[in-house]
Amino acid sequence: MLIPCPPTALPEAFWVICLRSMQAFGRGRRVIFKFNKLNSKKCAYCTLQNEKCIPIPWYVREEYAAFWAAIDDLVLEEEEEMDLEEIIAIKRAAYALDNVVRVTTSMMKESGTDPLVFALLEGI
To answer: Which superkingdom, per the lineage (predicted)?
Structure first.
């Protein structure tokens, strides 16, 4: 059975890449982030790490687009080495996305706002 996209998740990123995989790319690791099955709750990276997949939040649409553009430039064969410029672009995009997530999460905790309520108020 197909798992529906949570209201707080970015629909275009759901079942594509999770926040943990994106953070691993930001640390310079090249990880397998694909979901093996349509009904899977975990991506390949989170399955290997034995961790829960965290969907990328809806409010980082622009940062996700920049990150995905940097990842698209990384379409390489397994034997090839990553170019230093590609690594830097991916790290910057992942860092920017992660920063927005951390700051927004912190602001929501400070204000006592539930992410779901916050998402509904913003009019997803």
So the answer is: Eukaryota
* pLDDT for residue 78: 47
Task: State the DSSP code for 74.
Answer: T
Q: Quick check: is 5 in a domain?
A: no
Q: Is 74 in contact with 36 (CB distance < 8 Å)?
A: no
**17: which 2 tokens?**
């890449």
Q: How many domains does the chain have?
A: 1
Q: With respect to residue 54, please indicate whether it lies within any of the assigned structural domains.
A: yes
Query: How does pLDDT run across 11-36, given as a tens digit for each residue?
Result: 888 888 899 998 888 888 878 888 87
Task: For residue 9, tell me if it sits in a domain.
Answer: no
Residue range(s) defining the domain that contains residue 26: 19-121
Task: Provide the 10 A C-beta neighbour count for residue 59.
Answer: 19
Distance in angstroms between the alpha carbons of the first and the last residue of the chain: 25
Rounded to whole angstroms, the Cα distance separating 43 from 99 reads 22
Position 47 in a domain? yes
